[in-house]
Design goal:
By secondary structure, this protein is an alpha/beta fold. It has seven helices and four strands. The chain has a single domain, classed as Dna Topoisomerase Vi A Subunit, Chain: A, domain 2 (3-Layer(aba) Sandwich). Strand 3, helix 4 and strand 4 form a beta-alpha-beta unit. Helix 1 runs antiparallel to helix 6. It is elongated, with a radius of gyration of 16 Å. The relative contact order is 0.19.
């Protein structure tokens, strides 16, 4: 059995569980698009999810929408590509100026685990399904190497 894959799967599931708990407590999550929202719902995230790049929203529209939530903290969960990293940095700076805590810990933890394998939040559910299948198959006697897992 590939213990590397199993450990990776467990760590990602722990992050997603903590994300679900924070969201259930009322902390809004900021994602890029509608499909990202659908993916988080599929991963059992039930709280408030705001999108940044839908319906022609400008950056100022997004910041204003976050401010209207009257939340003291917002979880930033942009994509893992270059543009997502730029948006995360820009949003973080603006939110801090507004005295709203931008929580990037979930994004950073996921990025460190799967950032080179998954480029967006939308792909997270499919990645988890594939990872679960590979760990299940490897536990049944077919050994996956790290190279074949990516």
């Amino acid at each position: 059995m590939s213990t590397h894959l199993k450990k990776k799967e467990e760590r990602i599931l722990q992050i997603l569980e903590r994300l679900a708990q924070e969201s259930a407590k009322g902390t809004p999550i900021l994602v890029e698009g509608r499909r990202d929202t659908q993916t988080l719902r599929k991963l059992t995230i039930t709280g408030k999810i705001l999108t940044t790049k839908t319906s022609g929203k400008s950056f100022l529209d997004v910041v204003s929408e976050v401010k209207n939530q009257a939340a003291k903290e917002v979880i930033l969960l942009m994509d893992f590509d270059r543009r997502g990293k730029e948006w995360t940095k820009k949003l973080k700076q603006h939110l801090e100026k507004m005295r709203i805590k931008p929580n990037t810990s979930f994004w950073k933890n996921l990025l460190s685990l799967i950032g080179h394998e998954v480029k967006d939040i939308e792909g997270l559910a499919g990645y988890m399904e594939t990872l679960e299948r590979k760990t299940r198959i490897s536990s049944e006697g077919i050994l996956y190497t790290e190279e074949s897992a990516t």
